[in-house]
Each structure stands twice: as C-alpha cells, then as structure tokens.
Here is the input.
Amino acid sequence: MQCLRCQGLLIAVQMRDMGQPPVSGWRCLLCGATTDPGIEANRASHDQPIRNRARVPGTPTAKPGISRVR
Ligand SMILES: [Zn+2]
Here is the structure.
C-alpha cells in the first residue's frame, strides 16, 4: 500500500488514544503520515481541497489593514 502524500511505503500500526481501544491503521515510513478507516471515511465524505487559491491579477486583495507583510 502506498502513501497518498509521498507514495512511500505504508506499514500496519496499532494507534492508541487515551481511553479508546487501539485502532488498526497505516503509517508511512517516509513522511510519517498516519491513516485509519475512520480517517479514510471522513476523507471520502468531503470534497478534494482546492490547491490553487492564487489571486487573479487585477482583483482586489484581501481586507486592507490586516496584512503583516511589509
Ligand atoms: Zn508518505
């Protein structure tokens, strides 16, 4: 199985959370990304993130006065 982020090798792991029973999941050996069936179900129920949020030239910038870039 391959990592969705970096295509690295995923290994089976037991993930533990306080007060919760251990859950079988996957961890990437290269980038450390972890996933489990619950995470996959949540991911599948949402739209893909919008990758290109670049401003179109000529359109107004975000609200003036809150920019910290000088
Ligand atoms: Zn990875």
Observations:
- Residues 3, 5-6, 8, 28, 30-31, 33 surround zinc ion (CB under 6 Å).
